[in-house]
Amino acid sequence: MLSSNTSVVDRKVIVKSMKTFVAKIAMEEHGHMVLLALFDCLDDTVLIEKHIIKELVSHLLELSQNIHGKKVLSYLLNPRDPHYIHPDVINILKQGDGNQTSKKDPEIRSSELKSMIATPLLDLIKSNISNLYTDNSFCLFALVILQHTVGNRKEAFQSIADLVVEPYTTENKKHAIENPGSHFMFKQLIVRDKEESNDNVKFSEVLIQTVPKLVFKSWMDCNRGAFLLVGLLETELPTVVERIKQELDGCKKSLKKKPYKGAEILIKKLQ
User: Fold this and answer.
1) What InterPro entries does the annotation carry (predicted)?
2) Contact 238/203 with Cβ under 8 angstroms?
């Protein structure tokens, strides 16, 4: 690509010429690829932070709701991930590998860029999840952020847990455990608690510390809620398992009357 085949001086000129237009470029079909190439080849990450990331941060919400903008932000967190970047685009970017003017170790460059965007992206979740949890696309992007970011995720987890402090009722179809996007987000965050994390913060533990007594019991009243309870039991985290079992104590008879699969599996987990 052009930016990877130019001199260091020319790359810096390209970066500085983007002033005030970075967000617009990031949301363009072809323009966003120039940014990806710059992230790959420009060793001066301080320059990138000053002239590119600073502008991206000023438009995070808008970028997070744009297909190309999300690719740019995801690339900063985990470059060349085929889950977010098309393989054909990755192959184009690889053409710039091994150029003579990029000296910094790619992993070091990537780590520096990730550290610059991590906190603003976590803040994006904290500030917007209460309004956008019904937006499936935003929930999926929140999962990307929480999977690949560095730093303390506890406050972001807290903002997500706050979505379910009220009991579920069958009349409330917008409850976060019933909405498809937010349900998937909860499910994945719970599943990930089985894995090691850099900050040792477990979403399930934040969840049980946040959700008031008897709220988990209300989750039995829908299939998706029952499956989330199954997931919490499967984390095998002692405090989490104990809390769920305490709250569902004596509920097997009621669960047997439920017609959905989640209740059936939950009964087995409570044996």
Assistant:
1) ARM-like, ARM-type_fold, CPL_dom, PUM3, Pumilio_RNA-bd_rpt
2) no
